[in-house]
Amino acid sequence: MRNLKHLFDNNRQWSQKMSELDPSFFPTLAAQQSPQYLWVGCADSRVPANEIIGLLPGEVFVHRNIANAVIHTDLNCLSVLQYGIEVLKVKHVIVCGHYGCGGVRVAMQTQEFGLIDNWLRHLKDIYQKHEAVLDTLPDEQRFDRFCELNVIEQVYNVCHTTIVQGAWRRGQSLSIHGWIYGLQDGLLKDLGVTITQPDEISALYRMAVKS
Ligand code: CO
């Protein structure tokens, strides 16, 4: 199919509906964006950032990749963090994982999938780090806990980027949150690892990975 007509039809209807609700909606957005939130989530089609948290275009700056990983040398993710924090001046970075994450599941297996295995290698490292605890859990519980631990580790990674460290040093108000989303019920859970300044990192991290 050369033209995805139904998607353009959807788009026209959506655009029309938004303009009817608020004629200034698009002109205002076109002039500027000033989101308060930066979302780092999984690329999974079932976890769309805006819909889940009920925000309109313009309200959340988004970065998504497989298994919501924040890799220290990933220029794509780091650039989003830098632009979001230093230019847009977001107040909150939300790392949001989800239960039933395919990327996390694959990282628990030995089966090979190609290029993606290199990306998921980072998650395998996280598994190894927490192996002693994870290996004691029954399968489904182990998978859920690994999904949670992945979020906690990525929050930790966000906090240690030069971008977040620099923002805090400059006295910029910035909180990093770790959430997880349930595909079964569409509900978010706060993992209780919100970090607002550098001296909170170690204690919260230790508590979070233990609980
Ligand atoms: Co996922």
Description:
The chain has two domains: 1-31, no CATH class; 35-210, Beta-carbonic Anhydrase, Chain A. Helices cover 49% and strands 14% of the residues. By secondary structure, the protein is an alpha/beta fold. Helix 8 packs antiparallel against helix 10 (201-210). The protein has helices at 5-21, 25-31, 49-52, 75-87, 102-107, 116-129, 131-134, 139-159, 162-169, 201-210, and strands spanning 37-42, 60-65, 92-98, 175-181, 188-190. The protein is globular. Strands 2-1-3-4-5 form a five-stranded mixed beta sheet. The chain is built from ten helices and five strands. The site of cobalt (II) ion has 7 residues, from helix 5.
Q: Helix share of residues?
A: 40-55%
- What is the terminal-to-terminal distance? 50 Å
What structural class is derived from the secondary structure elements?
alpha/beta
Ions and ligands: cobalt (II) ion
Task: Please name the fourth-level CATH homologous superfamily of the largest domain.
Answer: Carbonic anhydrase
Mind summarizing the main beta sheet? Answer: 5 strands, mixed
Summarize the helix and strand pattern as letters: HHEHEHEHHHHHEEH
